[in-house]
């Protein structure tokens, strides 16, 4: 039976029978050839038996089970661990001889993969998701199945290893009163799941301890990329939901499908039918004060029918289970071209966004949603509480808020507590609230520009604030700003807007709405008095439908930047549904010269289409032949390799800056500026990652203490990466925090979503890193480097980017 294939360049060697001498010679020969060619050899471990047995001699370069002349999955994992940790092998592939199910039979707890879960150890010399040290390649979902059979979780990533798993089903994990992660527990790794399933895994607590991540748990300072995958039917069962920690903050546990406090990117993935308590049945995302934590990006994906059940309810707060589809607790979340549908929770059935609070202070939860749909969720569509949220080019429809307390208001969106809400070029329709604010319930500050808010409902006895309800506000500066927005479509409706509190609601806004002009209220209750405002008129809107352009064969051809994921689970449609003004509507050209800065409508068709911009989310005059204008959307994300964001005086540490063009057009003339704090000096010349577009260059000015990098272009959908190695040298910085800010600009075309471009004037989360300077001079370099200049290499005066060239597979 074949035990191992060792490849140097492209010449494979297949090993048969015992042949230990031959194997040893071939291992040496392969390594020598690899060294001579400047190419590290790839070590192949081929699993050919479904039994669950350990390796006979881990580290000898061959996968042989202790009980026979065959290779098991557990033996292959142990062999890979030994090769990485003791031999420094950095390119290992585990594959399978045929489709099969690999079922665990060895119970017990350890961290060497001998019993229970498959522990993956070791540290890669660099940190790059695209260059894994270990690859596990199956035959596809349902064909290669790893089943823990309820003995333990399936995978535990113990070391800071870079691992890629493709074509595998991960199921049957069960962890009871013993930690996080039913299917996967990622404690330290950089992990990619591609074309995988994580299904039918469970984490259960029967004690006062509480855990997270029924399907996947990913800790701080980890990274994961999940693409083309299914995360389904995982469960998180905590005995009691509501726990108040000693510092009076709500303990954040949850994530029936996924719990993340590191960095996760999810694309073309379905997350459905997961259960979790108390936060995030589908996904729970948590951040802290470490700027490298709680970053979540979701694109072209579906969160469907995830359920956060309720067992605790407070008369004021309502049910404690929050975030049926997604709960964000102080993290940074970007959602694009995705569907959040049919999820349920006591509060925030679709999305719950809040802050992270502890005795150290509070971190704002930031969530940005573009070209997406929040539809048919129970327990509000979206709740923004103690966070900051932007909703752009999206549709919020058919959601219900019919529980108790605050859960009875804001069927579409509830903006509650110290928070900020921005909604632009979006549609809010068909939502229902038991008490008030069928469309929106706003308790603090909200800005609505080119929004259509119509046909929302109140299901209880009160009919106050059917479209918009404004709770009586007490904080100075809180306001509700409306511009170019449609409210209601029933002429003379006295209850489009309302205000007050739970006991004294009234059918008017009492001046709490500030009009920036060119709004249309079908009734008279919103108190609009800005320039160009229209009241008591029917906006004459068509049905909720796909109003994108059509090709000659009748197929939709809307902006590719708004196309929803193509999936059998997508029963919603191909684009966010919208309400198009019909002929004779006063919304058409009603905004005159008051066009939004983006010059786009919800479909991302150009404005204006006629003599002036239209009121509401859609530009009716755009026509079926309207071509989407060129658009770019640059985002800068900054991280540091400083452990726990603490660095010693005169200690080298690194920053990594990544600029991504999320738009549909190549960006020309990209300039990235990084402002080093006073007292922090640049140690090495800035290093540009070799995956960045060609032609880029960086300069440093000691006068301004700024690094400026310019690139002639950044193609749509691509990123550029720059590494900085710096040192805090000023004694006055000891026991203080320093802020490193970044900002990116583009020459052409205009960035139509500039909110994530960073700032040199303010510490904008995501584009700013805060570290604390301590007096010690110990070099705090994590094993294998970190997310910035990769530690030890920078201290030797070598470009950080060299580590990315450590091998070719």
Compose a concise summary of this entry:
It is built from three helices and 64 strands.
What would your notes on this structure say?
By secondary structure, this protein is mostly beta strands. The protein has three helices and 64 strands. β27 and β28 (318-319) form a beta hairpin. Mean pLDDT is 84; it is low at 1-39, 241-250, 314-318 and 777-809.
Number of strands: 64
Mean pLDDT equals: 84
Number of helices: 3
Oligomer: single chain
Would you spell out the secondary-structure blueprint of this structure?
Elements: E1 4-8, E2 11-14, H1 20-37, E3 42-47, H2 73-87, E4 92-96, E5 100-103, E6 118-120, E7 134-137, E8 144-147, E9 155-157, E10 162-166, E11 169-171, E12 174-176, E13 184-186, E14 190-194, E15 197-199, E16 202-205, E17 216-218, E18 223-227, E19 230-232, E20 235-238, E21 258-260, E22 263-267, E23 270-272, E24 283-286, E25 295-299, E26 302-304, E27 313-314, E28 318-319, E29 326-329, E30 332-336, E31 339-341, E32 351-354, E33 356-358, E34 361-363, E35 365-370, E36 373-375, E37 382-385, E38 387-392, E39 395-397, E40 400-401, E41 413-416, E42 420-429, E43 432-433, E44 440-442, E45 445-454, E46 457-458, E47 468-471, E48 480-483, E49 486-487, E50 497-500, E51 513-515, E52 520-521, E53 534-535, E54 634-640, E55 646-648, E56 652-661, E57 667-675, E58 680-682, E59 687-688, E60 697-701, E61 706-714, E62 719-728, E63 737-748, E64 768-774, H3 792-795
Parallel strand pairs: 3-4, 4-7, 5-8, 6-9, 7-10, 8-11, 9-13, 10-14, 11-15, 12-16, 13-17, 14-18, 15-19, 16-20, 17-21, 18-22, 19-23, 21-24, 22-25, 23-26, 24-29, 25-30, 26-31, 29-32, 30-35, 31-36, 32-37, 35-38, 36-39, 37-41, 38-42, 39-42, 40-43, 41-44, 42-45, 43-46, 44-47, 45-48, 45-49, 47-50, ...
Antiparallel strand pairs: 1-2, 1-3, 27-28, 33-34, 54-56, 56-62, 57-61, 57-63, 58-62, 59-62, 60-61, 63-64
């Amino acid at each position: 039976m074949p035990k191992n294939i060792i490849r140097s360049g492209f010449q494979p060697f297949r090993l048969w029978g015992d042949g230990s001498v031959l194997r040893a010679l071939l291992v040496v020969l392969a390594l020598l050839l690899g060294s001579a060619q400047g190419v590290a050899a790839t070590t192949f471990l081929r699993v050919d038996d479904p039994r669950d047995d350990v390796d006979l001699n881990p580290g000898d370069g061959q996968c042989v089970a202790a009980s026979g002349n065959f290779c098991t999955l557990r033996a292959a994992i142990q062999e890979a661990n030994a090769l990485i940790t003791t031999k420094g092998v950095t390119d290992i592939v585990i594959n399978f001889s045929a489709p099969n199910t690999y079922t665990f039979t060895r119970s017990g707890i350890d961290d060497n993969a001998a019993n229970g879960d498959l522990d993956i150890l070791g540290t890669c010399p660099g940190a790059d998701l695209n260059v894994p040290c270990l690859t596990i390649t199956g035959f596809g979902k349902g064909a290669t199945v790893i089943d823990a059979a309820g003995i333990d979780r399936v995978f535990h990533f113990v070391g800071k290893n870079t691992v890629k798993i493709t074509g595998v089903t991960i199921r049957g994990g069960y962890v009871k009163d013993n930690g996080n992660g039913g299917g996967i527990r990622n404690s330290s790794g950089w992990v990619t799941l591609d074309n995988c399933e994580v299904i039918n895994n469970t984490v259960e607590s029967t004690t006062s301890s509480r855990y997270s991540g029924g399907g996947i748990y990913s800790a701080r300072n980890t990274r994961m990329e999940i693409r083309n995958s299914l995360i389904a039917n995982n469960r998180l069962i905590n005995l009691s939901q509501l726990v108040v920690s000693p510092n009076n903050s709500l303990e954040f546990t949850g994530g029936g499908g996924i719990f993340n406090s590191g960095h996760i990117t999810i694309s073309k993935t379905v997350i459905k039918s997961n259960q979790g308590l108390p936060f995030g049945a589908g996904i729970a995302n948590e951040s802290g004060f470490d700027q490298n934590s709680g970053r979540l990006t979701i694109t072209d994906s579906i969160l469907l029918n995830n359920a956060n059940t309720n067992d605790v309810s407070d008369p004021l707060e309502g049910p404690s289970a929050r975030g049926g589809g997604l709960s964000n607790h102080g993290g940074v979340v970007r959602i694009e071209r995705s569907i959040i549908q049919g999820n349920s929770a006591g509060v925030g059935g679709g999305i719950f966004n809040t802050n992270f609070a502890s005795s150290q202070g509070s971190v704002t939860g930031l969530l940005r949603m573009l070209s997406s749909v929040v539809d048919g969720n129970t327990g509000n569509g979206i709740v923004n509480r103690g966070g900051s949220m932007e909703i752009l080019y999206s549709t919020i429809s058919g959601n219900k808020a019919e529980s108790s307390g605050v859960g009875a208001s804001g069927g579409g969106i509830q903006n509650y507590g110290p928070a900020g809400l921005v909604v632009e070029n979006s549609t809010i329709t068909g939502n229902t609230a038991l008490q008030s604010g069928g469309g929106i319930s706003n308790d603090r500050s909200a800005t609505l520009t080119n929004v259509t808010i119509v046909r929302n409902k109140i299901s209880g006895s009160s009919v106050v604030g059917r479209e918009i309800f404004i709770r009586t506000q007490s904080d100075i500066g809180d306001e509700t700003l409306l511009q170019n927005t449609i409210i209601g479509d029933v002429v003379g409706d006295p209850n489009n807007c309302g205000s007050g509190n739970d006991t004294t609601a009234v059918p008017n806004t009492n001046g709490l709405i500030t009009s920036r002009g060119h709004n249309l209220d079908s009734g008279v209750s919103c108190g609009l008095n800005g320039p160009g405002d229209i009241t008591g008129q029917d906006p004459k809107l068509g049905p909720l439908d796909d109003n994108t352009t059509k090709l000659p064969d009748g197929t939709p051809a809307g902006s590719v930047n708004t196309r929803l994921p193509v999936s059998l689970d997508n029963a919603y449609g191909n684009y966010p549904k919208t309400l198009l003004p019909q002929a004779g509507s006063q919304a058409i050209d009603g905004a005159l010269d008051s066009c939004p800065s983006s010059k786009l409508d919800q479909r991302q068709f150009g404005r204006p289409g006629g003599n002036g911009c239209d009121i509401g989310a859609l530009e009716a005059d755009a026509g079926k032949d309207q071509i989407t204008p060129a658009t770019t959307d640059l985002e800068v994300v900054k991280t540091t390799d400083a452990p726990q964001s603490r660095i010693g005086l005169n200690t080298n540490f690194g920053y990594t800056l990544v600029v991504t063009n999320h738009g549909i057009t190549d960006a020309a003339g990209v300039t990235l500026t990084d402002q080093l704090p006073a007292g922090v000096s640049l140690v090495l010349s800035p290093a540009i990652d070799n995956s960045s577009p060609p032609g880029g260059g960086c300069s440093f000015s000691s006068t301004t203490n700024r690094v400026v990098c310019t690139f002639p272009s950044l193609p749509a959908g691509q990123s550029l990466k720059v590494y900085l190695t710096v040192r805090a040298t000023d004694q006055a910085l000891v026991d203080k925090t320093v802020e490193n800010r970044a900002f990116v600009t583009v020459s052409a075309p205009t960035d139509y979503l500039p909110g994530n471009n960073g700032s040199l004037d303010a510490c904008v989360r995501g584009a700013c890193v805060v570290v604390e300077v301590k007096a010690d001079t110990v070099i705090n370099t994590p094993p294998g480097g970190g997310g910035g200049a990769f530690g030890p290499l920078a201290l030797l005066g070598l470009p950080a980017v060299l580590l990315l060239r450590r091998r070719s597979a």
